[in-house]
Amino acid sequence: AQTVTQSQPEMSVQEAETVTLSCTYDTSESDYYLFWYKQPPSRQMILVIRQEAYKQQNATENRFSVNFQKAAKSFSLKISDSQLGDAAMYFCAYRSANAGNMLTFGGGTRLMVKP
Amino acid sequence: ETGVTQSPTHLIKTRGQQVTLRCSSQSGHNTVSWYQQALGQGPQFIFQYYREEENGRGNFPPRFSGLQFPNYSSELNVNALELDDSALYLCASSFPDQRESGELFFGEGSRLTVL
Fold this sequence. Notes:
By secondary structure, chain A is mainly beta. Chain A has no helices and twelve strands. Chain A has strands spanning about 5, 10-15, 20, 25, 30-40, 45-50, 60, 65-70, 75-80, 90-95, 105, 110-115.
């Protein structure tokens, strides 16, 4: 079974600064997807960024980028120019290419942004 | 295009009771999945439905059951409620070709409290 670990229960960043959230995973599969989801107090999970395991290039979405290290099974999220609206719970998630909608989530990291 | 909507948003039950939670998928989505998110933890996959049939299940007992209707709306039923069933229940839907897109669209969840 796959597992996803987020070792930082809480992180804090100053507005406009950069922060990196860590995620490691364990799998024996070669074809899978990795995701970062944001969950604000409204509770709705919002997709931040996704990475296909077969792609060597790290995904980027505006201020959000990932550092995908397949051999090390590491998938960190970097948020640049942090904004107050970035404050939320962030979850790393894994999905096998053949697992439909079955995501395996990490335990989450609470990000606080200081003005 | 409407998003994923869930009802009720909050509810309180007592041990031994039964509960039904409802989800309306985003327009055009024919795959729906349910997740349980205990307080302070990441979501855990319960099961998923595709074309009205369950086609994937996580580590949850049979008292967790579901339905998907022809209009792709869905229900989650939990019988013989236990205190540990207290959690946020999230519904997520995706496009038929979600294997390629990899994106799930989540509702805001139903917060269940079991006393």
